[in-house]
Amino acid sequence: MTEFSIREYLRSMRLPFCTGCGNMTVISCFLKAVHELGYEDLRKFVFCSGIGCAAWIPSPHFKADSIHTTHGRSIPTATGVKLVRPTLNVVVFGGDGDLVGIGLSHLIHATRRNLDITVIMVNNMIYGMTGGQMAPTTPFKAKTTTTPYGNLERPFDATQLIVAAGACYAARWTTFHIDQLRGAMKRALTTKGFAFIEAISQCPTAFGRRVGLKTPKEMLRWFKEESVPVQKARKMTDGDLVGKIVIGDFVCRERPPFTKTVYETIKEAANDTQAS
Predict the structure, then answer these.
(1) Domains of the chain, residue spans
(2) Which CATH architecture best describes the domain 6-275?
(3) For FRET with 26, which of 179, 223, 224, 240 sits at 20 to 30 Å CA-CA?
(4) Contact 242/229 with Cβ under 8 angstroms?
(5) Quick check: pTM over 0.90?
(6) Please, are residues 23 and 202 in contact by the beta-carbon 8 Å criterion?
(7) Residue 107 neighbours by CB under 8 Å, 6+ apart
């Protein structure tokens, strides 16, 4: 196995992310996880993404086949790819607005079906690319361009939703916890069934400066100080968890993946047709 070099997996293009954006950390963790799993290139992967900052992670920057879809429609596209080419590793990258805003229904039903893909949601808690509007994951009372007096809505707990919908693997880490995030990506990529990772990511440009965290360092310190392991969180009250970030592996279980079920059913139907 050759020594890891991120340049082996990235095209020679300038990345479009703002200074201090957590997307670079997510890229580094993911590609290092891929390398540690024994993939020296991305020929056995297909990446799907929608619209938003995180959607630019794989497309067009990874040296791989990728499909850049319309807003919120990356998972239906990934479904088609996985059903047609079941031996490929199909990975979806998206932001919180893309996946639990406009694309929420697709995310829930892919989880329910146990579609054999990996979904990595980079949660920067805001619509960062379009002006800093409130997102489904924006913290309560946080100021955004559309909530100048603070967000009046409670944020979506995406990972808990995915657990309830039936995922085989679901985890949440922050961009401060780089070793744990990389490990979770490795577990997700080797899961037979639907795997979901929520990567809480800093966005000093659109989110941080509006909530008093003006630098990436300040946001990462926030992640460090306010994170609570999921095992500990389960023993805490809702009041104790206000403002906290619950991190860790939320679920790891085995269920028959959707692709396997589909192909077994096709074979069964073909045998019935021949028999008749």
Answers:
(1) 6-275
(2) 3-Layer(aba) Sandwich (3.40)
(3) 240
(4) no
(5) yes
(6) no
(7) 75, 99, 100, 119, 162
